[in-house]
Amino acid sequence: MCTLEKRGNILYLTLTGEDEHRLNPELIGSIRSALAQAKSQAVNGSALITTAHGKFFSNGFDLRYAQAAGSAQGAKDRLMNMVELFKPLVTDFISLPMPTIAAINGHAAAAGLMLAMCHDYVMMRSDKGVLYMSELDIGMTLPDYFTALIRSKISSAPACRALVLRAMKIKGDEAVQMGIVDSIHANGEEAFKAAVQLGEDLAKKRWNRKAYSEIRKSLHPELCALLGISDTVVVPSRL
């Protein structure tokens, strides 16, 4: 599942185990619980880093879990349930009152890539791992909030087309050029170190956590509208 560890002002969310970290109801619930705990521990100057064990950051929704329903309709119902369960997880990340950084340790596909892109910053290893939106290849449309998240995070129309209309498997150097990730690093350990360094640098700013959350939300109006997130005005306690 996942763990949450606090060291200083940095909170570390780790998807544990050596599997593909497929997003089924159990894992989605576990991540949401960890984020609720992180939110309760947040102070001005906190930051969150998310990473995973093994070869995968996350390989998307758990299609084996869906197929285990035993019928085509049951599989469809389970898949759509995961789509609905993942939506408030995106809300949790977009509303989190601290900077967030994803250190992608391996492959990130479909909803697993969306999980990474929920973060403010994304670091990726260059030696292994690809980013991949598989929906076109499996014959599935994108949930509306997936599309809004992609549009809000990737400013290049050609990059968006390559990701979702060509279903490209994108390596680290291409991901930087396309604006999907912020930086690439020699291996997973170096990507994680870079995430920690950035987290520590951001934590030193000691920004007002509520103001940070509201300013982040203001950058993604279409996404927030689909998620049902409302704005809150934050002003300095002392003017």
What does this structure look like?
The chain has a single domain, classed as 2-enoyl-CoA Hydratase, Chain A, domain 1 (Alpha-Beta Complex). The termini are far apart. Helix 1 packs parallel to helix 3 and helix 6 packs antiparallel against helix 11. A 6-stranded mixed β-sheet has the order 1-2-3-5-7-9, sandwiched between helices. Helices cover 48% and strands 16% of the residues. It is α/β, with parallel strands linked by helices and 239 residues long. It is built from 11 helices and 9 strands. It is globular, with a radius of gyration of 17 Å. A hairpin with a 2-residue loop joins strand 1 and strand 2. The longest helix is centred in the middle third of the chain and has 24 residues.
Biggest sheet, open or closed, and with what strands and sense?
Answer: 6 strands, mixed
**Can you write the helix and strand succession as a string?**
EEHEEHHEEHEEHHHHEHHH
Q: Give the N-terminus to C-terminus distance in angstroms.
A: 45 Å
Shape: globular
Number of strands: 9
Any guess at the CATH architecture? Alpha-Beta Complex
Query: What is the helical fraction, as a range of percent?
Result: 40-55%
Number of helices: 11
Ranges with pLDDT <50 over ≥5 residues? none
What percent of residues are in strands?
15-25%
The figure for the number of domains is 1
Spatial strand order of the main sheet: 1-2-3-5-7-9
CATH superfamily: 2-enoyl-CoA Hydratase, Chain A, domain 1
Radius of gyration: 17 Å
Helix/strand structural class:
alpha/beta
Q: Tell me the name of the CATH class.
A: Alpha Beta
Query: Would you tell me the overall average pLDDT?
Result: 95
* CATH domain fold name: 2-enoyl-CoA Hydratase, Chain A, domain 1
EC number: 5.3.3.8
Keywords: Lipid metabolism
Family: Belongs to the enoyl-CoA hydratase/isomerase family.
GO molecular function: delta(3)-delta(2)-enoyl-CoA isomerase activity
